[in-house]
Amino acid sequence: MLASKPCLRVLEVHSPISALLAEQLRLEPSPGHSVAFDAVWSSSLTDSTHRGLPDIEILSPSNRLQGIREIFDVCTLSMIYDADTGGKPEHFAIHVKMLDRAGVGAVVIEDKCGLKKNSLFGNEVSQVQESVDGFCQKIRLGRASSGPQGAMIIARCESLILDRGMDDALQRCLAYVEAGADGIMIHSRKKDGGEILAFARRFREHCAHVPLVCVPTSYAHLSFDELQAAGFNVVIYANHMLRSAYMAMREVATDILRHGRTLEVEQRCLGIEDILDLIPGTR
C-alpha cells in the first residue's frame, strides 16, 4: 500500500464491529473520487480502556492476540499494532513473530522505558526515554525476528513529547533508520501542529523515502491533505472510535435513567431491523 499510495488513512479499532465499520465505510466527496480507510490501528490505549484497565502497558501481545484474531475474522484491512515500548528486547523479538504470524502488517514501538505512561501527559508525569543504543538494539532484534517479508518495524520517537527538542528528535530518528527501522512515527502534543510540520520538513531533507507516520490527536485541525503535503505517509486516527462510542453509550444510558423508558433514545440507536441486517447470516 505504501508503494501504491502517497499517504494512508488508518482508523483505530478495538472490536470486530468497529473493524467492520472501518472496512465498509466509503465516501464519495465528488464524482469519481472516493475516500476510505486503508488500514486499522490496534491501540494499546483503547484496548486497555475497552477492558477497564489503565494504559500502563498492562496488556501484552499475548493478552491482545485473541482480539486481533477476532478482528481479522471479519476484516481484511491491514493492521498497524501499537506495541508500547516493546518490553524487554528478547520478549519483543518473540512477540514480533507472534504478531507476524497473526497477520499484523506493522508493529510500532516507542523509545521509552520503565512504567509506560500515556504520551499526551508529556512531562506532567515521570516518563523516561530509552537510550539510543538500547532502542536501536531492540529495533535490530525485532527486524531480524520479522524477516524481510514480515511485519514492518516502525520506531516511534518521543523526544518532542518530552520537550527534548527538534535536534534530539531528528538525531534519534536517523539512528533508528540506520538500525533498520522500516518507518518513523513522530509524536507531538503541541496543538498548533507547527512542531510536527517542522520535523517532517527536516526529516525529509535526510530521508526522502522512509515512511513517516503521525497521530494528529492533539493537532486535530490539520487535515489529511495538509499532512500528506507535509511529507507524511501514514495518518493514524488513534482513539476516536472508542472515545465516540463511550460518549454515545453514556448519553443513551443517562437518558434511559432520566426518562424511565427508551422512547427518547430510540432515534440515536441503530434500528432493530438494521442491526439484524448488519451481520451477514443473522437472518
Automatic annotation (TrEMBL):
Family: Belongs to the isocitrate lyase/PEP mutase superfamily. PEP mutase family.
Keywords: Isomerase, Metal-binding
Stated name of the protein: phosphoenolpyruvate mutase
Gene coding for it: aepX
Coiled coil: none
EC annotation from Swiss-Prot or TrEMBL: 5.4.2.9
Gene Ontology MF terms in the entry: phosphoenolpyruvate mutase activity
Membrane-crossing residue ranges in chain numbering: none
One matching Pfam family: PEP_mutase
Keyword S-adenosyl-L-methionine: no
